[in-house]
Amino acid sequence: MADAGGQGLPRRVLALGATSAIAEATLRLIAEQGGSFVLAGRNAQKLDAVRSDLLTRGARAATVLVVDLDDTAAHPVLLAQAVEALGGIDLALLAHGVLGNQADAERDYAAAEAILRTNFLSAVSLITWLANYFEEERQGTLAVISSVAGDRGRKSNYVYGASKGGLNIFLDGLRHRLHGTGVHVLTIKPGFVATPMTAHLPPSPLFAQPSRVARDIVRGIDKGKAVVYTPPFWRLIMLMVRNCPAFIFHKTNM
């Protein structure tokens, strides 16, 4: 099982937002080593397809839980069901999220709130329960898919970026709190990934395939990393973005 020291892939896996392209690619790699899964999300048909695929690839068992992850009141029951189905959780992978529409969010608070609710508030609700569970167990990996967009606010996507930036800081503090407990907290920061969520964006050489991102995630889990930029070149890109002086930054169109 994976822990803060990095001792191999976990065997009992809860995937929240299991139908996301990145989550599915990551789960496939774990399934090849015989993991057991609880797959949570809104779309029953897609969840069943993921389940069948994982079983074909070597998963020992896979259970589907249909739930709206924005419904924070339902989280305690959902997570308790996952623990019961798996007999305990070694890895929780949080992969649900929305890109939203920046232009709508600039004009309409409700649109901005919806992005923040899904990407930040619902994630905080799930992470809080899971962190306490793992702390009691003195083991476990909490792997959360965030984004490089949270590293600095930019006019093109600052509402989405704010939701991910808040999430990054929350995970930083949680990692600090859980240091020495045997619990591994991993912040995953993808750049552009070729998924249905980004299909409307113009193509770019910076886009990565979900399978590439999944390999970086699995490596980060296995090695007990704190933060994974994926692909790794995004670490250098975002270092430059974060440190770009405002008088230059404000002339860009990012």
Give an overview of the whole structure.
The chain has 254 residues and is of the alpha/beta class. 48% of the residues lie in helices and 15% in strands. The protein contains nine helices and seven strands; from the N terminus they run E-H-E-H-E-H-E-H-H-E-H-E-H-E-H-H. The protein has helices at residues 21-31, 44-56, 75-86, 102-107, 109-137, 158-178, 210-223, 233-243, 246-249, and strands at 12-16, 36-41, 61-66, 91-94, 140-145, 183-190, 227-230. The protein has a seven-stranded parallel beta sheet with strand order 3-2-1-4-5-6-7, sandwiched between helices. Strand 6, helix 7 (210-223) and strand 7 form a beta-alpha-beta unit. Helix 1 runs parallel beside helix 2 (44-56) and helix 5 (109-137) runs parallel beside helix 6 (158-178). The relative contact order is 0.14. The model is unreliable at 1-7 (pLDDT under 50).
Which helices and strands occur, and which strands form pairs?
Blueprint: E1 12-16, H1 21-31, E2 36-41, H2 44-56, E3 61-66, H3 75-86, E4 91-94, H4 102-107, H5 109-137, E5 140-145, H6 158-178, E6 183-190, H7 210-223, E7 227-230, H8 233-243, H9 246-249
Parallel strand pairs: 1-2, 1-4, 2-3, 4-5, 5-6, 6-7
Helix pairs in contact: 1-2, 1-7, 5-6
Q: State the end-to-end CA separation.
A: 41 Å
- Report strand %: 15-25%
Uncertain regions spanning at least 5 consecutive residues: 1-7
* Proportion of helical residues: 40-55%
Mean pLDDT, to the nearest integer, reads: 93
Q: Outline, from the CA principal axes?
A: globular
Number of alpha- plus pi-helical segments: 9
| Major β-sheet annotation | 7 strands, parallel
Q: Which structural class fits the helix and strand makeup?
A: alpha/beta
Reading the helices and strands in chain order gives EHEHEHEHHEHEHEHH
